[in-house]
Each structure stands twice: as structure tokens, then as C-alpha cells.
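Reply to dn_fold:

You asked what the input looked like. This is it:
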Amino acid sequence: MDKNIKGISILESLVCLVIIGIGFVAMLQLSSFSINVADRTIEKNKINFLSEMVVEDMLGDYNNRSSYGGFNESNCYYSNQGGSELHKKNKDKWRNKLNEKNYIRYDTGSGYKDKKPKCYTGDTKQTFFKDGSGRLKFKTGKGKRKKYLGVLIK
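and this is what came back:
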């Protein structure tokens, strides 16, 4: 072999491509992980806002505070119950927020479509009221992620 020939051998270029490929795979896994974390963070923020809304409604209607127990939505299809009392209207408002009617709307080209949040078997939204204290329990992500919030109503 002539030692004066300069350049890159095929073996060196293949090693370089393997190293670059490993780097790209690592970057794709990192971006996938960060997207999942962002989705979970958004879901947690929604649950926090919804739970605060529920507790504020319970606190705001002091005279009917015991009527707020028994809210139990353990499926993904929420339908309004109706009623003229404030606690029934508030519960319907909660159902609308959980269903996110007209919350995220996008154009499909042939009209608008509502985007609803992911809802799985095992997801529940419940309120409890006993002895002057209200409690809220949200389970999301197939029941794996839980949010508890309790308040003493005096």
C-alpha cells in the first residue's frame, strides 16, 4: 500500500455513521420522553384547575354544602342532569368542564371538530361531604394518577 494516499477509509466512515446514528436515536428518545412529560404536566394542570373550581363551588354555596357530596363520574361520557338548584347547576358545570365541550376546537377543512381529553377505564371524579368537610378525588391515566383535595367548610 502507498502511504501517501490521504482520505477516509470505508471502515472509518461506517464507524462515524454508527456513532451519529446512536446520537440520533438518543435524541429521538429524549424528545419522545419530553413530549410525554409535557402531556402529563398539562393533564395535571387541568386536574388542578378543575379541582380548585369544584372546591370553590362547594365553598361558595355554604347553605347547600351537604348537597355537593355524591358527585361520581366514573365513565368518560358525561351527561347533564339538569335542575334549578345551584348545586345541580354547579354539578352540570363540572360535567361540562370534564367533557370539555367546545374547549379545544380545530378546523378539519369540512367543519370544526372538538378535541376531547383522553379518558380511560379507571378514571373517576368524585366528591364527598361529611361532618362539615368536603373532599374531592380525581383519578386519571387509567386510575394511576390521583389528585386528592380536602377542605373544611365552616
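Residues 10-152 form one domain.
Hope that clears it up.
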